[in-house]
Fold this protein.
Amino acid sequence: MYLTTKAHKGNTKAHKVIIKNRRYILHSLPFLIAGIAFACVRIAVHNPEFVEKYYSTGLYPVIARLFSWVSKIIPFSVWDIFWILTVIVVLAGLVLVIIRRLTILKYLLGAGQFLALLYTLFYLTWGFNYFRPPIESRVGWKKSIPQEEFFRSVLDSLIKGANSSYISIDKSQYPVVDSLVEKSYRQNNDQLGISYPNGSRRPKKMVLSSLFARSGVSGYFGPFFNEVHLNGLLFPLDYPYVLAHEKAHQFAITSEAEANLAAFVVCSTSEDKRLRYSAAINMLLYFLNDATGLADYHEYVKKIDSLVISDIRARSKYYDTFQNKTLEKIQRKANDVYLKSNHIKKGIKNYNEVVALVISWQQNKRQLNN
């Protein structure tokens, strides 16, 4: 009887040790997975060609097709709902800590595990695309140093393009615009170095459009669910360009400058005036910003038709009604940190680097035509 009881106690003790070890392993697993992901990120940073071959053009298109097929059948933004629920859970956890229904250590452990899994999921579903080669390497053209003469030439062509393609755009035309953007992406597949169709891209309106409008966000790509988002308060003439920009991210183009270039190429080469006008206006604003140092800057401004000038002023006035400088400053700082942490060295200044890319694209196109 004594021996049986002793053996039983020994088995119980061993069972408890096994359970304890299992719990330890389960608690540690998210951090272990994140550690492996971090090591892969460090390797990827120094091996862009490997990333391009095995992830960007290998694994990612499979992920994009699967995730976008699922998100396509859901009419609302899964990404936005996910983050809203996350905030609710985080706040609920804090309340439980305050009323002592949950220890601070368990709360912090849970939060750490959640962040570790998010980190891993981000890079697995899309983030490794940050480490692929730049677009000039992918499509085989040279990224030239912008010369003032060619800069002026492109600026002139943008002004002429805006003047000649002037047209009004309203929200009722958005579905048609979406199909036209898709058509142009299919036609520009090779020169942009993308894998069309790469799944599907159903544009979704941000759940918190008003909040994002106040912080200056016109659109974003949700990598976890492969979703393209646009602000429901976009100024209509921006819609084609912003839509094309966010779709570029779905095609594994992570650089903001490259996404701007893709949007410009897709919209400016379209047969549809709405897309061409949107491209001309948005790119013209980037070029005019860089042209302010030219002695004859105002002479270029005078070349812009009054109707186009009216649209630019109306656009600026429209966005000013939403602007909240504090929110915009926070958003810009957060985006800057995010981009730099993913090896976009210039952070939010990367958007403006599209000027050099457009000039290079135009120069390479001319060389091919000659």
Q: What stands out?
A: The longest helix spans residues 2-45. The mean pLDDT is 91. The first strand starts at residue 204 and ends at 205.
